């Protein structure tokens, strides 16, 4: 049981750090709240959906920005979508970069866009590793027989 | 640039001077660089001295600008100046040249004629001298021949002598007739000589002869024999020393002998022409010299032949002095200046115009001199010059015309003519100083040149000055233009920055509102949590309030920015002004209570019930004004008065004096003007002026600040920020809104402390709704009201109004007074009757029946009861006595404790209202009382009143307020302000709150820990929200049970999240991926429905659509448009809620424009979504509540 409580503490600390460092925001908490007996893996499901979607979007963005004549409208719509999906899971930092990205798109600033793409990728990978780590912790807790503590 | 081009063209045009031009160019460049550096230094020090702290970059910009303009101006100036200089110089030179050349050529032609003439005359004289000499000689010869033929062959001495005598006379005659002759000589064959001679020195005439002793009577000369010829030479004569020469002076006129003859030495002899001089027997002449004259002599000789013409018997010689030629020359030269001389072909000087001697004295006697040896320097140098120029080979014609011979220091004209005589060719030379002919011309030319040069210099200077002045203007203009450009730049920058500001605000609105919404939403969740301690609940409520305040502040700032950018558009919709304002006062009065301030709303009856306008904005105006008043009022009252002024029917309102109206001369005239303008176009559009006053008893505003309080960020007193907080934006927004509604607002002077704000709004009334005439309505009910209220203003107002509509009132401001009045009214009826007769003049004494017939209403403020102790129960017991005879209405405070409420409920006091009490509530009370009365009359008992009351309250709250708010929400095409909407929503829910308080189970009421604390500014709002929350939670979170929702969303994550959220609320969710699918999903049932008309009436498949705005294939806007098109002609209207990540009001406007009903921002806030869905679906919240209660 001690291991479980330690794991739980670790989980709480980790989650708190994620919130403090603004990797996640309250939207994620809302997601967690939505998870219940009827949808036991709701968060993981949604987040993995997000991962898939993001990979696709990032690829699209990269190809769109590599074109000789960049279609900023298309880029903008991609980024908008990305912003929507990231804000829906509460990946705050990704959302923030997306906001910048859209500004550059409006200015048709290719350099800025490319820079933002890198940032978005970076942030995305960061949040992905963080979330994956979080889920791993969750799994460990569950395997150890404890319950995942609910963040408020 | 133009200058450069100019210069370029100039260079091209002067292609011949390209080198010079390039040189000038180089000079320009150099000068320019120098000027540049100077300028830079200059501006540098200027910058240092003046603009030390001005932005460097800007200055640099201006500096370079200035420099470039300076450069071009400078180059242009130089180019123009140089061009001018060259032009003027050319003009000067050409003028000078042409004037000079033409005069010179004409003068030269003239001078040539003159010179020719001058030279011709001495030459002609010479010619004539020669001719005359020859003529005389010939005449002498002819006469001699004649005489000698007569005395041919003289036989004796006497004849010989006679011949000589005759010859002498004849010769004398000839000699005397020609005074120019120097001498005439006759030399006979025999050696005898006769001669006449004039000595020019003493002007004496001599006869010279030799004695006859030696002469021989030789035979006549044989012309052809050389020996005889030998005998005739001069040497023989000279050497004939043996002969004695005699000379007799003669009278020059008569030829008489005047002196004695005397012998003279042979060297004193004159030239005697001998035979040697006529070697060919023809006439000959030559130039000779004699010692008697200092001028050369022209001597001619001719032989005298005998009759047979074979032999020469004598030789006649005539000498003429060339002196007269010299004389003529002198005369000519004296008149014309210059020098003339004549030379023989060999160069011997014959005559000169000068006085210098023409002969040189040599040891052998005087001799002719060459011209080059002349003592006259001019003649000498001239001759030398000629010799040098032509040497010994004169030009064939001997004619020379030289114009620029430099002799000594002066220029001369030299001309020579050749006189070709057979025996004596001569050359005449004229030397005239150039000055004589050309002197004046040269002088004039020089003067002209000088004048021209000075004039051109003057013109150049003036031109340069003019250019400088002119280009100065140009350069100034250029500077101005540069400045203008920089200003434009600055303006563009400023505009850009303003754009950035709005952009920033636009971004921020999203960024700020989202977290705020999240905060508030989460707080709501937290508040609804069951397991919180009271303390925690309190804290969270506090946080909730602060968040709301913060959100309101944000909205204010956004409002201001929107108003400033002119994007504010007012909607035109019907709304109930009175209800909105009452709701507002309801809400705000809670705040007032904290300060012991009465909030009173006093709207006159003549105000139109329904007006057209932007209700949200109107409410915002008054919310701002009243909350402002609340902020500054610590005790007293705040009154919102309102009345209508119909421009056509001027209704005098008793509440307001004329003087106040006089302060506002504007609106009525304005309106009338407007009316007259609009009269033709729309007569039906009847606009009304609605007057409002917000009167408080606060700290007041200094009269000097009455205008400025309406400025942005302005507060009457800087210290107020510290004391009361606020941004100072409220009044600014108010004024902008009021002005937009065609009204005005100002602070008006007030008697007593506090502030009186007066404003009017110009609002339209759609149709003439007949005003309710309460007087008629209540006349037959015989109403009697006892007003027991703490607030004096409220009480006075109400009693005034009640008495106006014909209701008897009694006022009581405290418990004792109330008991007194009640006792007087009910306990001893006799006394009451007296009182009544006193009150109502002609009423007969009220009997018991009459008492029954009239409706008594006793309005009691809960504050009348002594709540601090338990006395209030006693007081209630006291009042119970009158329960049967009168209808009690209780005015509750928002902080009235539940025990009291329960107690009241238990005692059957069902008619309760919340503070503040105003007309509408009063009317409700009255109506409830009347109704109860009629029921009780019908049934004879007073039972089941709860249900009836419930009914009444439902009538009051449900259909009107909720529907109304819903309707206005649906219609809000203008940008929705969250705050106002929130207020409105809470208003309606606050009404529910009242209702709830009336009929919900007491346990539930008591179990709610949402009773707000005493310092809560928005307790009603919180109350309402939380009660709603509570309903949700108490319903097991299934508030959306049975609602069918179509979710159109392309992002899988959002799809999932929203689905789960909604399903958790109990809704049925169908998900589609894009707009096309959404439309199809809707159309399928619809298409089937179109087959039969009856099916159309069936409820659609979905109750509501959640529509993402940005989707592939067809976006939310298009999909909505398509759906609305499909709905056209049917009575269906499926609610569509937009989902978007944009938070700008423009997006919202766009959403509403395409026909969406509401608007949610991503990320989805669960609570907001649920409340929105609830408000839009047909399932009304209260019906839900009722169903849940059951």
Automatic annotation (TrEMBL), chain A:
* Any Gene Ontology biological process: cytokinin-activated signaling pathway
Query: Keywords of this protein's UniProt record, alphabetized?
Result: Cytokinin signaling pathway, Cytoplasm, Nucleus, Phosphoprotein, Two-component regulatory system
GO MF terms on file? Answer: histidine phosphotransfer kinase activity; protein histidine kinase binding
Q: Where in the cell is it found?
A: Cytoplasm, Cytosol; Nucleus
Q: Which InterPro entries match?
A: AHP1-5/YPD1 (IPR045871), HPT_dom_sf (IPR036641), Sig_transdc_His_kin_Hpt_dom (IPR008207)
Q: In terms of one coarse class, where is the protein primarily found?
A: cytoplasm
Q: What is this protein called?
A: Histidine-containing phosphotransfer protein
What is the organism field in this record?
Deinandra increscens subsp. villosa
UniProtKB/TrEMBL annotation, chain B:
Q: What is its EC number?
A: 2.7.13.3
Which Gene Ontology MF annotations are present? phosphorelay sensor kinase activity
Polar residues composition-biased segments:
1004-1013
| Reactions it catalyzes | ATP + protein L-histidine = ADP + protein N-phospho-L-histidine
Residue stretches making up the Response regulatory domain: 1044-1177
| InterPro entries the UniProt entry points to | CheY-like_superfamily, HATPase_C_sf, HATPase_dom, His_kinase_dom, HisK_dim/P_dom, HisK_dim/P_sf, Sensor_HK_Regulatory, Sig_transdc_His_kin-like_C
Transmembrane segment boundaries:
74-96, 448-470
Give the modified residues of type 4-aspartylphosphate. Answer: 1108
Task: Tell me the segments the record calls region Disordered.
Answer: 955-975, 1004-1037
Task: Give all residue intervals belonging to the Histidine kinase domain.
Answer: 507-765
What's the top EC group for this one? Answer: transferase
Q: Which Gene3D superfamilies match?
A: 1.10.287.130, 3.40.50.2300, Histidine kinase-like ATPase, C-terminal domain, PAS domain
**Coiled-coil ranges from the UniProt annotation:** none
Quote the SMART domains the UniProt record gives: HATPase_c (SM00387), HisKA (SM00388), REC (SM00448)
Q: Which UniProt keywords apply?
A: Kinase, Membrane, Phosphoprotein, Transferase, Transmembrane, Transmembrane helix, Two-component regulatory system
The record's PROSITE patterns line, in alphabetical order, gives:
HIS_KIN, RESPONSE_REGULATORY
What is the protein's name according to its record? histidine kinase
- Which species expresses this protein natively? Deinandra increscens subsp. villosa
């Amino acid at each position: 049981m001690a291991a479980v409580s330690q794991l739980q503490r670790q989980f709480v600390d980790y989650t708190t750090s994620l919130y403090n460092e603004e990797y996640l925001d309250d939207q994620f908490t809302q997601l967690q709240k939505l998870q219940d007996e009827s949808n036991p893996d709701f968060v993981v499901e949604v987040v993995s959906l997000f991962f898939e979607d993001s990979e696709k979007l990032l690829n699209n963005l990269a190809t769109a920005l590599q074109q000789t004549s960049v279609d900023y409208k298309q880029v903008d719509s991609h980024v908008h979508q990305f912003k929507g999906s990231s804000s829906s899971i509460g990946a705050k930092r990704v959302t923030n970069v997306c906001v910048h990205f859209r500004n550059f798109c409006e200015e048709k600033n290719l350099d800025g866009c490319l820079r933002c793409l890198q940032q978005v990728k970076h942030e995305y990978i960061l949040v992905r590793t963080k979330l994956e780590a979080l889920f791993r912790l969750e799994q460990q807790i569950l395997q150890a027989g404890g319950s995942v503590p609910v963040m408020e | 640039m133009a200058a450069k081009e100019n210069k370029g063209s100039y260079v091209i045009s002067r292609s011949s001077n390209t080198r010079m031009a390039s040189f000038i160019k180089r000079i320009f460049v150099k000068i320019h660089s120098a000027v540049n550096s100077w300028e830079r230094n200059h501006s540098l020090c200027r910058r240092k001295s003046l603009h030390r702290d001005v932005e460097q970059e800007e200055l640099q910009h201006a500096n370079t600008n200035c420099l470039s303009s300076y450069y071009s101006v400078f180059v242009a100036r130089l180019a123009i100046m140089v061009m001018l200089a060259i032009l003027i110089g050319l003009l000067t030179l050409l003028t000078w040249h042409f004037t000079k050349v033409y005069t010179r050529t004409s003068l030269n032609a003239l001078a040539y004629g003159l010179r020719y003439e001058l030279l011709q005359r001495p030459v002609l004289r010479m010619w004539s001298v020669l001719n005359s000499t020859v003529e005389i000689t010939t005449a002498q010869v002819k006469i001699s021949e004649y005489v000698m033929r007569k005395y041919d062959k003289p036989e004796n001495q006497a004849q010989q002598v006679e011949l000589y005598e005759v010859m002498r006379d004849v010769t004398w005659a000839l000699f005397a007739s020609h005074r120019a002759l120097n001498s005439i000589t006759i030399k006979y064959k025999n050696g005898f000589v006769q001669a006449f001679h004039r000595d020019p020195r003493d002007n004496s005439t001599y006869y010279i002869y030799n004695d006859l002793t030696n002469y021989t009577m030789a035979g006549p000369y044989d012309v052809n024999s050389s020996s005889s010829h030998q005998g005739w030479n001069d040497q023989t004569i000279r050497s004939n020393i043996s002969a004695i020469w005699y000379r007799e002076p003669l009278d020059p006129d008569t030829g008489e002998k005047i002196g004695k003859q005397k012998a003279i030495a042979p060297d004193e002899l004159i030239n005697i022409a001998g035979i040697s001089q006529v070697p060919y027997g023809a006439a000959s002449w030559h130039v000779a010299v004699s010692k008697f004259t200092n001028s050369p002599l022209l001597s001619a000789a001719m032989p005298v032949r005998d009759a047979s013409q074979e032999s020469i018997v004598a030789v006649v010689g005539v000498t003429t002095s060339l002196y007269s030629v010299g004389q003529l020359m002198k005369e000519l030269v004296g008149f014309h200046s210059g020098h003339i001389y004549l030379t023989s072909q060999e160069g011997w000087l014959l005559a000169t115009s000068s006085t210098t001697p023409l002969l040189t004295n040599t040891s052998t006697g005087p001799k002719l001199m060459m011209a080059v040896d002349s003592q006259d320097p001019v003649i000498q140098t001239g001759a030398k010059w000629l010799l040098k120029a032509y040497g010994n080979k004169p030009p064939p014609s001997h004619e020379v015309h030289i114009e620029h011979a430099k002799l000594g220091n002066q220029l001369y004209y030299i001309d020579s003519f050749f006189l070709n005589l057979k025996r004596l060719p001569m050359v005449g030379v004229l030397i005239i100083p150039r000055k004589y002919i050309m002197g004046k011309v040269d002088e004039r030319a020089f003067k002209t040149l000088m004048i021209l040069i000075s004039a051109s210099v003057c013109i150049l200077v003036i031109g340069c000055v003019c250019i400088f002045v002119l280009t100065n203007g140009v350069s100034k203009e250029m500077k101005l233009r540069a400045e203008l450009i920089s200003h434009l730049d600055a303006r563009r920058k400023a505009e850009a920055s303003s754009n950035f500001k709005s952009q920033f605000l636009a971004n921020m609105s999203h960024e700020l509102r989202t977290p705020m919404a999240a905060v508030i939403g989460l707080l709501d969740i937290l508040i609804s949590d069951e397991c919180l301690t009271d303390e925690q609940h309190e804290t969270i409520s506090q946080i909730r309030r602060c968040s709301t305040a913060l959100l309101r502040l944000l909205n204010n700032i956004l409002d201001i920015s929107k108003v400033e950018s002119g994007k504010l558009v007012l909607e035109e919709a019907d709304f109930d002004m009175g209800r909105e304002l009452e709701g507002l006062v309801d809400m705000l009065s809670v705040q007032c209570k904290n300060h012991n301030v009465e909030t009173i709303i006093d709207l006159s009856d003549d105000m139109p019930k329904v007006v057209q306008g932007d209700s949200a904005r109107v409410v915002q105006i008054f919310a701002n004004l009243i909350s402002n008043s609340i902020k500054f009022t610590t005790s007293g009252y705040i009154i919102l008065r309102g009345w209508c002024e119909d421009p056509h029917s001027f209704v005098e309102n008793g509440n307001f004096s004329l003087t106040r109206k006089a302060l506002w001369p504007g609106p009525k005239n304005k309106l009338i003007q407007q009316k007259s303008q609009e009269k033709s176009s729309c007569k039906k559009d009847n606009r009304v002026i609605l007057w409002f006053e917000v009167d408080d008893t606060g700290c007041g505003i200094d009269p000097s600040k009455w205008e400025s309080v309406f400025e942005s960020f302005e507060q009457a007193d800087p210290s107020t920020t510290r004391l009361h907080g606020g941004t100072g934006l409220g009044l600014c927004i108010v004024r902008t809104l009021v002005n937009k509604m065609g009204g005005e607002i100002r602070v008006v002077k007030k008697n007593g402390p506090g502030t009186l704000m007066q404003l009017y709004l110009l609002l339209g009334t759609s149709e003439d709704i007949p005003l309710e005439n309460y007087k008629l309505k209540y006349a037959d009910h015989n109403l009697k009201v006892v007003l027991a209220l703490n607030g004096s203003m409220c009480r006075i107002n109400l009693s005034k109004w009640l008495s106006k509509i014909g209701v008897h009132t009694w006022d009581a401001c405290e418990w004792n007074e109330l008991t007194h009045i009640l006792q007087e009214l009910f306990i001893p009826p006799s006394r009451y009757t007296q009182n009544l007769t006193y009150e109502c003049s002609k009423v007969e004494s009220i009997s018991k029946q009459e008492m029954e017939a009239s409706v008594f209403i006793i309005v009691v403020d809960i504050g009348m009861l002594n709540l601090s102790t338990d006395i209030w129960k006693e007081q209630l017991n006291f009042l119970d006595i009158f329960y049967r005879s009168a209808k009690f209405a209780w005015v509750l405070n928002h902080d009235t404790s539940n025990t009291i409420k329960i107690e009241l409920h238990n005692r059957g006091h069902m008619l309760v209202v919340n503070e503040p009490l105003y007309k509408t509530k009063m009317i409700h009370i009255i109506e409830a009382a009347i109704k109860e009365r009629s029921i009780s009359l019908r049934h004879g008992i007073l039972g089941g009143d709860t249900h009836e009351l419930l009914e009444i309250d439902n009538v009051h709250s449900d259909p009107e307020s909720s529907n109304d708010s819903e309707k206005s929400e649906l219609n809000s095409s203008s940008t929705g302000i969250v705050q106002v909407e929130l207020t409105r929503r809470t208003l309606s829910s606050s009404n529910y709150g009242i209702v709830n308080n009336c009929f919900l189970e007491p346990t539930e009421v008591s179990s709610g820990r949402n009773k707000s604390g005493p310092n809560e500014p928005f307790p009603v709002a919180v109350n309402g929200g939380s009660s709603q929350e509570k309903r949700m939670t108490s319903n097991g979170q299934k508030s959306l049970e049975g609602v069918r929702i179509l979710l159109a969303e392309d992002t899988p994550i959002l799809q999932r999240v929203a689905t789960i959220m909604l399903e958790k609320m109990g809704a049925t969710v169908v998900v589609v991926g894009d707009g096309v699918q959404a439309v199809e999903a809707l159309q399928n049932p619809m298409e089937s429905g179109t087959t039969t008309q009856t099916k159309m009436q069936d409820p659609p498949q979905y109750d509501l659509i959640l529509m993402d705005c940005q989707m592939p294939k067809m976006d939310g806007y298009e999909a909505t448009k398509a759906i609305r098109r499909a709905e056209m002609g049917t009575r269906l209207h499926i609610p569509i809620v937009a989902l978007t990540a944009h938070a700008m009001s423009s997006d919202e406007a766009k959403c509403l424009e395409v026909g969406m009903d509401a608007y949610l921002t991503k990320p989805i806030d669960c609570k907001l979504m649920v409340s929105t869905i609830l408000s839009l679906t047909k399932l009304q919240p209260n019906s839900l509540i009722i169903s849940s209660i059951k």
